[in-house]
Amino acid sequence: MKIVGLITEYNPFHNGHQYHIQAAKEVTGADIAVVIMSGDYVQRGTAAIMPKRLRAEMALKCGAAAVFELPVCYATGSAELFAYGAVSFLDQLGIVDSLCFGSECGDLEGMEAAADILLEEPEAYQTRLKDCLKQGMSFPSAREEALTACMETEQYSILLRDPNNILGVEYLKALKKRGSKIRPYTIRRKGSHYHDQDLKSPFGSASAIRSLLAYSGCALSGVSSARTFENTPFVNILGELEEQVPQSCLELLKDYHRVKYPIYQNDFSLILKYKLLNKRPETLPRYMDVSRDLANRICGQLNDYFNYKQFCELVKTRDVTQTRINRALLHIMLGIKKTAVNEYLENGPHFYARLLGFRRDCEKVVSAIAKKSPLPLLTRPYDDQGIEPAGRKMLTHDILASNLYTSVVTDKYKTAFENEYNQGILKI
After folding, report:
1. Any residues with CB less than 8 A from the CB of 235 and at least 6 apart, and which?
2. Cα–Cα distances in angstroms (integers) from residue 307 to residues 84, 154, 265, in the given order
3. Which CATH number fits domain 1-104+163-192+241-263+349-428: 3.80.30.20, 3.40.50.300, 3.40.50.620, 3.90.1150.10?
4. Where residue 155 falls among pLDDT bands split at 50, 70, 90?
5. Pairing assessment for the beta strands 183-188 and 353-358 based on DSSP bridges
6. 65 phi and psi, to 5 degrees?
7. Is the pLDDT of residue 227 over 50?
8. Contact 428, 60 (CB under 8 A)
């Protein structure tokens, strides 16, 4: 049994993701695809548009054999931390033969070369990086410039301009850092670009589909409309959704619309403000992605806080990306501290494998993980026997983050609260 690992967010699941599952098995010769998926919060520093179990169910119905949850501290981390957390998870499962990821370039050789430079950080790279940062460039821009200066082939110098290329390079770097035996593959991204808002292709981006779920179809076409998805009949966007997501996913979207989704950044506005009102500038740098300068700016602008999204934009500066701001504020809201993450990395980086669901016809892969992986297979969050203290701390944090998300869903749609401790395993 050959197994390929996929690192995903499925925010939300669409045709491109189904293609990725199918193509990954074909390219690697794998029998089964195992998915590591972000939970209720994603790497761009926001809440996922719909709950993790709904997204996991979509993946299972579209060919994934099993879906595991990536702990929230890694799922909401920088590209480097996200990649290392996900790759180390696949490595620690003990049964994964290959990793297949999508990229804009489809050039594994070039990405390998970039990964080597970023891992080794030669003197020329370090010097150029420092110079760029001194000039006030953001870290991603400075890193791209430094990498360009060190790349021998000009065609490789633009690898870090596209988000999937960036993550791919970080996956490769993580594999090298761990000395992993997992073999990497990449497939070229099909259809729309990551940030495209155009849904002309049946392979539209997740960004475009999220926009469709947030606003009416006419808003996507450039026609001014103040109506949000909550005020737009589902039937008005159904036609566009039918071309963008598999049929089984469409049925779930129908069933759970305004029951479990959509969830937006601004749904957490009061929670974030409450958290910020209880913080001082000197305490905020304890949290991931928060510098002293950013801490001072957050506290200095707090009187102008209107909502979550607006505040993220308000505190942004030229030398800090919007995604970095998003992550910093999310980490404050969720209580993700630098000391805790360092503890996890030094002692784990993983302590359990939390299973969200599996296909009944692929149950053998779950049994194989239970036998071969050094990680305890966690099917119930309260079953933490045998997990070391750092792992129990990580699990407690994961559960709290999920319960917070569920509380927002409950309040928004007036549905029954489903405590994370009572959630079972999806079996498709």
Report:
1. none
2. 32, 44, 9
3. 3.40.50.620
4. low
5. unpaired
6. -80, -40
7. no
8. yes
d(CA 359, CA 363): 6
Residue 225 has pLDDT above 70, yes or no: no
Q: Rounded to 5 degrees, what angle do the CA atoms 257, 275, 320 make?
A: 85
Whether residue 281 has a cis bond before it, omega within 30° of 0: no
Find out whether 70 and 85 touch, Cβ atoms under 8 Å.
yes
Look up residue 274 and give its two tokens: 């409450």
CA 147 from centroid of its chain's CA atoms = 24
CA distance 9 to 155: 29
Domain with CATH 3.40.50.620 in the chain: 1-104+163-192+241-263+349-428
Mean pLDDT of 62-81: 97
Task: Region of 308 please: left (phi>0), alpha (psi -120 to 50) or beta.
Answer: alpha
Read off the pTM. 0.92
- SS3 state of residue 254: helix
Report whether 101 contacts 164 (CB < 8 A): yes
User: Which tens digits make up the pLDDT trace of 258-307?
Assistant: 899 999 999 999 999 999 999 999 999 999 999 999 999 999 999 999 99
Burial state string for 302-322 with b = 16 or more CB within 10 A and e = fewer than 16: eeebebbeebbeebbeeebee
